[in-house]
Design brief:
With about 300 residues, this protein is of the alpha+beta class. It is about 25% helix and about 25% strand.
Length: about 300
């Protein structure tokens, strides 16, 4: 089959006249599953660039997206139900055009969860409530209203898609990010203690090591590369979870998943690797491939992927 051009400006010039049909699911027992993950930076703008055609040609069993920046009611049917997939959206209930995640799955799960139940300090809640356009919610689990988390439960694994907070701005925003990190960590550890296999992905909003950022020295004091943020990734790995890309490519440099658009950083590959697929240790020998699709355009992030035999 002829592959759709990966640069989205080329896709626009060679638009597909009829929808690309999803291929037959790979989701059979003991077969390799293909997971795709992408921060879209706005699903409506992303879709207008023809990106869904590339996704359908890739034929993932699961497609996890972040920053949809839309309520499902604002989306067309081809974005809600592309051929062969059922979608599970979590949108922001606090303000429009903000956050939002979704998973497109070929196989329906046994259960869907949209809540981390993150408990935040009162000072952090007050700061979040004061954000422009934010709805005031005084609950200590306010974070579950931001549209950052969706988990699909299957008999032999749990897939989690998450858009972690950026943490920039007021000090309370970093405190909020760290609270989110800890609540997420507790959630996945609870699953692991129950004997469940865990796969989680998303925009984690931190570059783990100096190899994962083009200019580490210049960013030593910046959110997204702070020692306290990077230490959380250390903690996750020390607790028995695998950074799948680094497991396969431990020394590969200049491999990034996000670039600043304002400075045209992608043209020079001045980027950050802040998008990840993690699995628990039990799946280490099942990992078949992990990629960063840096040649695929459509957002300030590029897609990443994982293939696992489950």
């Amino acid at each position: 089959m002829k592959k759709t051009p990966t640069k989205i400006d080329e896709v626009d010039k060679k638009a597909v006249k009829k929808p690309v049909e999803a291929k037959e699911s790979r989701n059979d027992s003991k077969k390799e599953l293909y997971f795709l993950c992408w921060n879209l930076n706005g699903i409506r703008a992303w879709s207008k660039k023809g990106c869904m055609d590339w996704v359908l040609q890739e034929n993932p069993d699961f497609f996890c997206v972040q920053e949809t920046k839309a309520h499902p009611d604002q989306l067309t049917s081809d974005l809600i139900s592309p051929p062969g997939y059922t979608s599970y959206f979590d949108h922001s209930k606090l303000k429009k055009g903000y956050s939002g995640v979704a998973i497109y799955a070929k196989t329906k799960p046994e259960r869907v969860d949209y809540e981390l139940k993150v408990k935040l300090p009162k000072s952090v809640i007050e700061t979040l409530n004061s954000m422009e356009g934010a709805e005031v919610i005084d609950s200590d689990t306010r974070i579950d209203h931001e549209g950052r988390f969706v988990a699909l439960y299957y008999p032999n694994f749990v897939l989690i898609n998450c858009y972690f907070p950026n943490g920039g701005g007021a000090p309370e925003r970093l405190e909020y990010k760290l609270s989110f990190y800890e609540s997420f960590f507790n959630y996945i550890n609870k699953l692991k203690k129950q004997g469940k296999k865990v796969i989680f992905c998303g925009d984690v909003n931190v570059a783990h090591t100096e190899m994962d950022i083009a200019r580490p020295k210049e960013n030593q004091g910046n959110v997204g590369f702070l020692p306290i943020e990077r230490a959380w990734i250390d903690k996750v790995i020390a607790s028995g979870y695998i950074d799948t890309f680094r497991t396969l490519y431990p020394t590969l440099a200049n491999a990034y998943s996000w670039w600043d658009m304002k400075s045209a950083a992608r043209d020079r590959n001045i980027g950050w690797r802040i998008d990840y697929f993690f699995t628990d240790e039990s799946l280490r020998t099942k990992i078949k491939d992990a990629k960063i699709h840096a040649d695929v355009y459509g957002s300030d992030h590029c897609p990443i992927s994982l293939k696992v035999a489950i």
